[in-house]
Design goal:
By secondary structure, this protein is mainly α. The protein has two helices and no strands.
């Protein structure tokens, strides 16, 4: 990975998890399959993933970039 890719990895992962939560929530409103996924745990796991990335992201980024 290039230095830029390493620097951008944690912010990218954070955005991806956030967007996945938003799109899955929207899909749950419109589709019974996604609604079942949402109700069977996705609604609880996604905020935990976002919190985990906020908490550990700086350390991960530091290790990836050497700083």
């Amino acid at each position: 990975m290039t230095g830029r890719q390493r620097r951008d990895l944690v912010p990218l992962a954070t955005r991806m998890v956030h967007r996945f939560r938003l799109t899955t929530r929207a899909a749950a409103d419109a589709d019974p399959v996604f609604r079942r996924l949402w109700e069977n745990g996705v609604k609880d796991r996604m905020p935990r993933a976002e919190t985990w990335l906020r908490r550990h992201g700086p350390a991960i980024a530091s290790r990836l970039t050497g700083g």
